[in-house]
């Protein structure tokens, strides 16, 4: 089966490409990239000039909630949301019910993903049994079943000893350990960033150092063990500083990610436009302007490797409660591309090439996934983007089962036109 | 006229609204001196007191205020456990609204709970204390008490000492006193101070002597015994040594200083008994004034309710 | 606005009323004056002084705020809550003969509220009503015992009493809106 993606600006940082090219796809793989390619009997997809043809975007931090919390999201609805957001692949977190600490759960996830047949799903397994931080799970068995990384996300790996051992053991398997960095005693029962707004609103605070303390600990252990280490959802300026210093010291086994809300919003959102809006409650919390600016700086100077959404669906009933009681998290798959293009690219902070690096090239590299590049013979996972198209975020129109987003009504520039997985068009936006 | 149909916090009140409430409360005080302590103003109106946190003083004060205005009152003390059994706050209130109360007076352990209800429910909401956030009627009765003694609020030095971090009384009082032109000093150990306290418009200090020097008003806040877990203070004994209000310390304030406390007091922890019961203490007056202030609030808001029918 | 009473006529009316009070009540024993806020209060005080001048006896005087007793509270479609002022009745009204004083008698609803308020204060022996102006259009069976001036009006007109103590001068004005204007 042949498909020719004609015209369009191909942006492929992995192969140093940025220009107008045609892409010929055959049997689910990239056959050729070049100028004025013949269709050769295949279907022709004419791409508008100015539109971007990129390797499929990959979100390496997504909560698909299945098994066990299907009222919030299922794998089927999750991957539908993913492709609508331009993602050809997602890596899903293990804090399901039961926790994904066993190949049985990994296999269930892969089977459901295959049934849905939209975005590729790469399970991330739990570091410890039930993510309780006591007993390491069978990392090798989980890797064989299909896990691409390990984390106890939702929780930190609180024990430094367990973190050390996990880095060593997973390092042997060539698989990264991902940490949700947070010192439990400093976090306490906090629900918002410890700053002026939480103080004014009477909300218990979580200081930035609760996160950075553990980032620094983990970096030391990564240096000690040589294991592959990835910090997920960074929010505090001290964390960026720690990673920047680690990379400057030459540590190539340390990578990190930032979610869009942490470089777009601040804790002022706790009060404006809606006071105590639970759609602004997530962990790690929105921090102050200096922290947000540090995220932007880290994205621009290369300290940040990956943008990942931390897509965390919650049912409306669960969020329509007092701030203290609401669960942490917002959905992110379908708001990521407009936010990245509007607030980073159009705002002049990074170029398109860097944006694709953050959303595709680097995620594939960090988790050693297929994709992230449009080389000859690579899998034909492609995302086509219209960087100047206006987008109005409508929570009610999201394909995710849950609509918990603070971006409802936001007008941004940057839309997904089409998502292609293995040469098959799985999402199409009639712009 | 009050601009909002709710009283969620001092944050939403302009100075002229605060003055209106205090002036109205002044007229209400006379009713307590009558043989028949009742006026028919809220006759036929139903006010529900929905208390998710235990409270004797505030709830009683609201009940008395409501009854003096001839309203029908219904007090519901919701044990925390029945809420955790599954019914959400929203469902509890919506069920209540199906019985058509005119106003709901609510105290809740979560900051922002009344704001959630004001956004999503029909009734007028009076905040009787939400988590660590605000306790507007307390600040109003405190201001009323100060005004009775000092004839004004602007230009006074007010020292507030105690667990500032967890106190909704602090937040409401700071907002009100700042808005009305008073100079507020806030004193506590650093462990019990909210982040960026100086941005709140107060002078923060860890020295009680500095806070109290030449103060016109001293307001003591409760230290809960639970604060020793969480490592806020090593012991109540040490707290009293550093931050307790003793007769010796009171002498550093102005000779006509008034001593206040929202209650309930921990004698010997934040305040010496001799001070609490001494000649400068207006603590019991605060309680009396609480009824008049709450009557004023109910009266002024009840009118709003009808206006939006 | 046309003036229907000037300071002089007001003064003579009040003097005449003071004499009527003494005549009907055979002296000032057990009498007490209660002025209805706002303008009934200075009128009550003036009557108290007049009675003292004539009879050389002090008649206690109080001020009554009837806002909380109004039957039209909470019924307004728009408009702010009326301001409540202090009631000051520093004497017992039990077994007294109360002289209720107001500036204008119109529908009678204010007086009804005042009667309710007084009865909450105690059990007076009797209540008599003194008004400076009676403009008619009663909606309740209320009648004044002492009237300064009977002033027939239409519903479109409004009567304004101005007093030295509050407004800087004494006069009674009748506002007649031009044709086409509202009441």
Structure description:
The complex is a heterotrimer of chains A (431), B (309) and C (183). Chain A is α/β, with parallel strands linked by helices. Chain A is 30% helix and 23% strand. Chain A has 2 domains: 2-52 and 380-428, Urease, subunit C, domain 1 (Roll), CATH 2.30.40.10; 57-366, Metal-dependent hydrolases (TIM Barrel). Chain A has an 8-stranded parallel sheet. Chain A has a 6-stranded mixed sheet with strand order 3-2-7-18-19-20, covered by helices on one side. A 4-stranded mixed sheet of chain A has the order 5-4-1-6, with no helix packed on it. In chain A, helix 4 crosses helix 7. The model of chain A has no long low-confidence stretch (mean pLDDT 97). In chain B, the strands form 2 sheets. Chain B has a 5-stranded parallel sheet with strand order 7-6-5-8-9. Chain B has a 4-stranded parallel sheet with strand order 2-1-3-4, with helices on both faces. Chain B is globular. Chain B starts with 14 loop residues before the first helix and ends with a helix. The mean pLDDT of chain B is 92. By secondary structure, chain C is an alpha/beta fold. Chain C has one domain: Rossmann fold (3-Layer(aba) Sandwich), CATH 3.40.50. Chain C is 28% helix and 26% strand. Chain C contains 4 helices and 8 strands; from the N terminus they run E-H-E-H-E-E-H-E-E-E-H-E. In chain C, the strands form 2 sheets. Chain C has a 5-stranded parallel sheet with strand order 3-2-4-5-6, with helices on both faces. A 3-stranded antiparallel sheet of chain C has the order 1-8-7. In chain C, strand 4, helix 3 and strand 5 (126-134) form a beta-alpha-beta unit. In chain C, helix 1 (7-25) crosses helix 2 (40-55). The mean pLDDT of chain C is 91. The chains are: A alpha/beta (431), B alpha/beta (309), C alpha/beta (183). Chains in contact: A-B, B-C.
């Amino acid at each position: 089966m042949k498909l020719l993606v004609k015209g369009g600006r191909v942006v492929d940082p992995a192969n140093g490409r940025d220009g107008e090219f045609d892409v010929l796809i055959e049997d689910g793989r990239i056959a050729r990239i070049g100028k004025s390619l013949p269709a050769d009997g295949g279907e022709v997809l004419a791409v508008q000039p100015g539109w971007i043809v990129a390797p499929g975007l990959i979100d390496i931090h997504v909560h698909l909630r299945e098994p066990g919390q299907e009222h919030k999201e299922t794998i089927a609805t999750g991957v539908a949301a993913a492709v609508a957001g331009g993602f050809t692949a997602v890596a899903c977190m293990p804090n399901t019910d039961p926790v994904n600490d066993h190949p049985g759960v990994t296999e269930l996830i892969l089977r459901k993903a295959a049934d849905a047949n939209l975005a590729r799903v790469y399970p991330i397994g739990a570091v410890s049994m039930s993510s309780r931080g006591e007993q390491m799970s069978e990392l090798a068995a989980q890797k064989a079943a299909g896990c691409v990384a390990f984390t106890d996300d939702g929780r930190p790996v609180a024990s430094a000893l367990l973190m050390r051992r996990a880095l060593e053991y997973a390092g042997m398997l060539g698989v990264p350990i991902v940490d949700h960095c947070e010192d439990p005693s400093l976090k306490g029962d906090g629900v918002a960033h410890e700053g002026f707004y939480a103080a004014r609103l009477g909300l218990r605070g979580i200081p930035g150092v609760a996160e950075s303390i553990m980032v620094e600990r983990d970096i030391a252990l990564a240096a000690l063990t040589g294991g592959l280490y990835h910090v997920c959802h960074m929010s505090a300026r001290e964390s960026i500083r720690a990673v920047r210093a680690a990379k400057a010291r030459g540590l190539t086994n340390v990578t990190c990610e930032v979610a869009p809300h942490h470089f777009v919003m601040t804790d002022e959102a706790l009060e404006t436009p809606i006071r105590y809006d639970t759609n602004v409650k997530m962990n790690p919390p929105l921090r102050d302007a200096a922290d947000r600016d540090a995220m932007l700086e880290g994205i621009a100077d290369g300290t940040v490797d990956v943008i990942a959404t931390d897509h965390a669906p919650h049912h409306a009933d669960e969020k329509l409660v007092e701030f203290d009681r609401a669960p942490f998290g917002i959905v992110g798959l379908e708001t990521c591309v407009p936010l990245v293009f509007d607030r980073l690219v159009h705002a002049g902070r990074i170029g398109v090439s860097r944006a694709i690096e953050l959303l595709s090239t680097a995620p594939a590299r960090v988790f050693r996934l297929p994709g992230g590049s449009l080389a000859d013979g690579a899998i034909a996972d492609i995302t086509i983007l219209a960087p100047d198209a206006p987008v109005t975020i409508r929570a009610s129109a999201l394909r995710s089962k849950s609509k918990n987003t603070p971006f409802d009504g936001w007008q941004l520039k940057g839309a997904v036109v089409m998502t292609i997985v293995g040469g098959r068009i799985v999402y199409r936006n009639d712009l | 006229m009050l601009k909002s149909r709710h009283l969620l916090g001092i944050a939403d009140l302009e100075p002229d609204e605060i003055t209106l409430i205090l002036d109205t409360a002044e007229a209400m005080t006379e009713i307590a001196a009558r043989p028949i302590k009742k006026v028919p103003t809220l006759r036929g109106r139903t006010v529900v007191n929905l208390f998710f946190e235990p409270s004797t003083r505030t709830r009683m004060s609201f009940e008395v205020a409501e009854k003096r205005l001839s309203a029908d009152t219904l007090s519901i003390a919701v044990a925390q456990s029945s809420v955790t059994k599954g019914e959400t706050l929203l469902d509890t209130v919506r069920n209540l609204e199906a019985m058509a109360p005119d106003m709901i007076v609510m105290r809740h352990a979560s900051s922002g709970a009344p704001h959630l209800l004001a956004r999503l429910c029909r009734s007028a909401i009076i905040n009787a204390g939400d988590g660590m956030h605000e306790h507007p009627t307390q600040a109003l009765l405190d201001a009323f008490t100060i005004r009775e003694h000092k004839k004004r609020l602007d230009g006074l030095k007010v020292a507030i000492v105690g667990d500032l971090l967890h106190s909704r009384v602090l937040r409401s009082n700071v907002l009100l006193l700042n808005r009305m032109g008073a100079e507020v000093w806030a004193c506590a150990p650093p462990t019990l101070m909210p982040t960026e306290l100086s941005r709140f418009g107060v002078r923060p200090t860890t020295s009680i002597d500095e806070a109290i020097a030449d103060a016109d008003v001293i307001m003591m806040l409760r230290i809960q015994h639970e604060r020793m877990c969480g490592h806020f203070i090593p012991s109540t004994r040490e707290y009293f040594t550093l931050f307790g209000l003793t007769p010796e310390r009171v002498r550093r304030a102005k000779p006509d200083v008034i001593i206040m406390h929202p209650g309930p007091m921990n004698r010997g922890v934040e305040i010496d008994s001799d001070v609490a019961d001494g000649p400068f203490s207006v603590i019991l007056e605060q309680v009396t004034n609480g009824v008049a202030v709450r009557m004023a609030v109910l009266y002024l808001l009840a009118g709003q309710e009808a206006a939006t029918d | 606005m046309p003036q229907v009473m000037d300071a002089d006529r007001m003064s003579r009316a009040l003097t005449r009323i003071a004499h009527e009070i003494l005549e009907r009540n055979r002296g000032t024993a057990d009498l007490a004056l209660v002025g209805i806020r706002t303008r009934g209060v200075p009128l009550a005080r003036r009557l108290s002084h007049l009675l003292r001048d004539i009879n050389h006896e002090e008649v206690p005087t109080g001020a009554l705020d009837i806002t909380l007793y109004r039957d039209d509270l909470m019924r307004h479609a728009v408009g702010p809550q009326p301001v409540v002022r202090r009631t000051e009745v520093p004497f017992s009204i039990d077994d007294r003969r109360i002289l209720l004083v107001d500036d204008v008698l119109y529908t009678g609803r204010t007086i009804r509220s005042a009667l309710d308020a007084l009865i909450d204060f105690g059990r007076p022996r009797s209540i008599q009503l003194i008004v400076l102006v009676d403009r008619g259009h009663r909606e309740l069976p209320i009648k004044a015992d002492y009237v300064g001036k009977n002033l027939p009006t239409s519903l479109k007109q409004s009567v304004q009493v101005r007093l030295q103590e509050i407004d800087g001068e004494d006069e009674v004005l009748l506002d007649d809106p031009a044709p086409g204007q509202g009441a």
